[in-house]
Design brief:
Layout: E1 3-5, H1 16-20, E2 26-28, E3 33-35, E4 55-57, H2 67-78, E5 80-81, H3 92-95
Length: 107
C-alpha cells in the first residue's frame, strides 16, 4: 500500500504534508504534489496535515479518483522531490473546495 494525492490538491498545493514526511516521498509539480510509491513508507503522517483532504491510503482512494494512483506514480518519475514546506498557491483556499480538476493539472 502507498498513499495517493488526489484532485483536491490541484491548484492548491498546500505543503504541510511535505513538512512531516520522513522519507521525502512528495514530488513537486507546477500546481500539484504527487507521492512516489517507491519512497512512501505508509506512515500516515501526511493525511491529517492536508487541509483539503487530498491524501488517501491506497485502499481508501474513492473509486472515482482511483486513476490518481497511477498518476502519482507517473508524475513521481519526472518531478523533483520537495523537501521543505512552501506557501500554498494563490487562491488555494477557494480551489480546495472545487472537485473534478484533473483537466487543470499542469505537468
Amino acid at each position: 500500500m502507498t498513499f495517493v494525492v488526489t484532485d483536491s490538491c490541484i491548484k492548491c498545493k498546500y505543503t504541510h504534508c511535505v513538512d512531516v514526511c520522513p522519507t521525502d516521498a512528495f514530488r513537486d509539480g507546477p500546481n500539484f504534489l504527487a507521492i512516489d510509491p517507491d519512497d512512501c513508507i505508509d506512515c500516515r503522517l501526511c493525511v491529517p496535515e492536508c487541509p483539503v483532504d487530498a491524501i488517501f491510503a491506497g485502499e481508501d482512494v474513492p473509486d472515482d479518483l482511483m486513476h490518481f494512483t497511477a498518476l502519482n506514480a507517473e508524475l513521481a518519475r519526472i518531478w523533483r522531490p520537495i523537501h521543505v514546506m512552501r506557501e500554498a498557491l494563490a487562491g488555494a483556499e477557494e480551489w480546495g473546495k472545487v472537485k473534478g480538476k484533473l483537466h487543470l493539472l499542469e505537468r
